[in-house]
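Revision sheet: structure tokens.
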Amino acid sequence: MAYVLVMGGLALSVSFTLGWMLWRALHWARGVMTKPAVRGQATPRPRARKAPAPRTAAANPAARPAAKPTPREPWALTYWLADRHSAPPLASFALLLYGLTRVVEFGMTQRPLSPPAGYHTLVDALGWAAAVLVTLTLLNLLARWRCRKG
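Predicted:
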């Protein structure tokens, strides 16, 4: 049993490291692919202005369309949260680790010997940590959507 736990932990550590490297490489490649090509500095041309509308329509308030509300600028906390890119991989790792510990806990309850005293507490704490990380990931995705450009 100790061999399985040690080798399983080693395999999980190596898998996490390789997954993290793949995640960062894909993130870097996406950033390289989406950057526009740098060209010579072109001077911006002044835009042609429209002819002013007749005074009769401007004087009549019923003829004017309703003003659209201007979108508010996101808070600094939203920008800070949108810049954190570590929440999704950490949440997926925590969920994977929680699932594996639940399977091991189920296996331990099926054998005649009882699991170690603090193991159930450890599994519960890991489940809560995974839930917090998933919530943080959802907030991160919402902040990225709120701070998107365009």
